Amino acid sequence: CCKAHGIRAKPGGPYPRARRDPFRGLHDRPGSETAASSDYFFMGVFDGVQTVIADQGLDLLVLPCPSGKDRYAYLERFVQRGVVDAMILAAVQYHDPRIELLQKTGIPFVTLGRSSLPTRHAWIDLDFEGAADVALSRLIGKGHRRIATTVPHGDVNFKHVFLAAYKKVLARHSLPFDPDLVFVTRRNEGAGYDVVDKMLTLPDPPTAIFLIYEVTAIGMYRRLRERGLMPGRDLAVFGFRDEPTTRFLSPPLTCFGLSLSDLGISLGRAMLAQIPRFQKRFPHGVVQKLQPLELRAGESDGNLDAHSQQRSISAGILFENAGSEPD
User: Fold this and answer.
1) Residues 93 and 67 in one domain
2) What CA–CA distances, in Å, run from 183 to 125, 201, 205, 220?
3) Alpha carbons 86 and 24: distance in angstroms, whole number
4) Is there a domain that residue 145 lies in?
5) Residue 39 has what pLDDT?
6) pLDDT number for residue 317
């Protein structure tokens, strides 16, 4: 650590160089729900990052912030120790002081996700705006007008990006925004189970839903069938990203394909472009890039018809009646 080598970080000055082995750090707080959801996202991204940096003689050090710990203090400790000489920040918050910390100390970094900060820095993000446009336009084209969506729990920045895109697409199609159709969820299968129950208690239930977390479709499919409804027929379901845990759903889930390896490669190159000694080989400057997503059409986002709409409304009435006490 810095203290052992007699080196301390100076506020506003250069970061300490307390070791000879070059490392690149990735800072994230996965959370218990992410670990429990069998998410392969970061493993695929890690592989892509290492594909790029290994050719430069560098290693990747993953620094997951424990649940319940302060992200800023946790990162600051590593900065002061000089454990890494470049960073990739994940789980970017709407107001993320970690970005200002790295800018202040001069450590090269790139973020996986944008932030609301006005300061310019390198980032790679998923094209949430493009995904919302394609998904909602497709559902609207199939006759749906009451389209629900889910957004992440907490203040992660892509929650705000995604919700703004959702509202913008609705407005472009002259559809009103209904806050009752926005459901805040965590990233697990049980969230889909709960969302179905909440939707069916609405006076005018939605006929379609766009899920920001695709694994919630697993619980949603089960709960719909328990309520006597069929995914794709009685409720159009559109997932965000294709992943192994949802590929055996029936009907097949309509979602977007994303190359995690390509995303990791983009992150690795963007990070190397911030490090002075690699800038001749990676002359990209301050990279700000949206990673594209590709539509993978399944059978879960069916057309709206009078039969499916009537079944959804009837199911909502039955659900409410089932919870009432007799006089």
Assistant:
1) yes
2) 23, 13, 13, 13
3) 5
4) yes
5) 57
6) 43
96 and 65 belong to one structural domain: yes
Predicted pLDDT of residue 112? 95
Q: Is 210 left (phi over 0), alpha (psi -120 to 50) or beta?
A: beta
- Tell me whether residue 309 is in a domain: yes
Residue 325 burial (CB count, 10 A): 4
pLDDT confidence of residue 258: 94
Mark whether 264 and 254 lie in a shared domain. Answer: no
Q: What is the pLDDT of residue 182?
A: 98
What's the CA gap between 221 and 82, in Å, rounded?
A: 48
Residue 61 has a pLDDT of 86
Same domain as 304, residue 173: yes
Virtual CA dihedral for 89, 90, 94, 99, nearest 10 degrees? 0
Is residue 92 situated within a structural domain?
Answer: yes
* Joined tokens for residue 136: 């909602």
DSSP string, 175-238: ----GGGEEEE-SSHHHHHHHHHHHHTSSS--SEEE-SSTTHHHHHHHHHHHTT--BTTTBEEE
CA distances from 94 to 114, 159, 280, 299, 307 (A): 8, 9, 33, 35, 42
pLDDT of 80 reads 85
Low-confidence ranges of the chain (pLDDT < 50): 1-23, 32-38, 307, 313-327
Query: 3-state DSSP call for residue 20?
Result: coil
Measured CA to CA, the distance from residue 299 to residue 125 in angstroms comes to 28
Full residue range of the structural domain in which residue 268 is found: 23-121+259-292
Hey, is 286 helix, strand or coil?
A: coil
Integer Cα distance of 295 and 292 in angstroms: 10
Count of domains observed in the chain: 2
